[in-house]
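Figure caption, in words: inputs first, then the predicted bound structure.
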Amino acid sequence: MSRAREWIELHRRYLATTTHDPENLPLVVERGEGVWLFDVDNNRYLDFSSSISVNNLGYPSHPEVIKAVVEQLGRLGHAAGTDFYNPYQVQLAMKLVEETPGDFPKKVFFGNSGTEANEAALKIAKTSTGRPLFISFIGGFHGRTHGTLALTASKSVQKKRQFPWMPGVFYAPYPNPYRNPWKIDGYEHPDELVQRVLEFIEEYIFDKLAPPEDFAGIFFEPIQGEGGYVVPPRGFFRELEKLARRHGILLVDDEVQMGLGRTGRMWGIEHFEVAPDILTTAKALSGGLVPIGATVYRAELDFKEAGMHSNTFGGNALASIVGIKVLEIAKSLLPHVRELEGLFRDELGRIKEEFSGVGDVRGLGLAWGVEFVSDKNTKKPDVEARNRVIREALKRGLVILGCGKSSVRLIPPLTISEEEAKIGLGLFREALKATL
Ligand SMILES: Cc1ncc(COP(=O)(O)O)c(C=O)c1O
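Bound structure (pyridoxal-5'-phosphate present):
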């Protein structure tokens, strides 16, 4: 038995069952170097997953982040960031305020993860508006704790045996151009698709289910990640913003997976020219080293009394130093990400034409989804083909992860060179040839 299989067996025995899929992705990582991962049997893999958009700056992290961590370790790691003050969290908060959309005063709450950033967003929206209800989108993912679990609607298994989760969330279809309840071709007719979604919210949710004045916020991902790397029509968020403003509802933009340069802009929502009232980020802000999450919001929405919300690790000095560096480096990588976008768009476009099992290809920057179908006309999802592509890619030394029902995501570290990107796309093509 390989060492990998031995570790997987021990893992199975001692660790909680989470999202591992040992049949399709039996990868036991021992170390990482740039965009490459090495397993316990010393096999080398090109990583097209960035550990789900966490290691956007590669492995173990960007050299400048590592240097900053080592320096900070000689000064301070943790010192009760929500009871004592420290300069590091203030500096990171100031930077986040500067780098996020919206030319208005903002404040920041720090946590440890994406779900915690979204939980804070829920509390901020409820307390500031005095309203109890929320809208989120089918296919969306916002976390797995009981508040965010209610917002999450990408796979029903995530909610298995958990009812009741937080009450008060209503779900609307996301304007997925390839697959939507109205069977509109959203690439050909983007405005029609957007209008249908808005009508659904106004005519079904607000007219029949609950009045708009009871809604505190609308949660969305600018591009759905776990739901399949789905890019909505460009006009969608401007129209959603108009609807939200009409009813005094807050827009909550979950940038946990798409933020920090992944789409070629600092934040995914920048492609849509909308400034959300609340923006959440996590994953890549950690530099792949120190877990952190952040909720950035209009200053006027802040909690009015000490103690209404807090935590233990928020404002951790080490995490703050990492976040500052990550923001700087991610910003400097934006032109590079935009340059590589064309390479992915062209090659994946060709792949869609050549392979009958590839139904849809969509993406921005270095955030790409490829959806597998058994028939391009019926669009029947081909889950087995998707899983086999992941296995065949791994056999050839390429790490990719699934998303949606029958899609894969291609999301390499933003630091990847053009040559490495070409190698990865070549291996992906080989995996498709072996499968389809
Ligand atoms: C868009 C989005 N929001 C929230 C989360 C939850 O983040 P975490 O797993 O850090 O709690 C994720 C995780 O995949 C995510 O992709």
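The pocket of pyridoxal-5'-phosphate is lined by residues 52, 113-115, 118, 141-143, 221, 225-226, 254, 256-257, 282 (CB under 6 Å).
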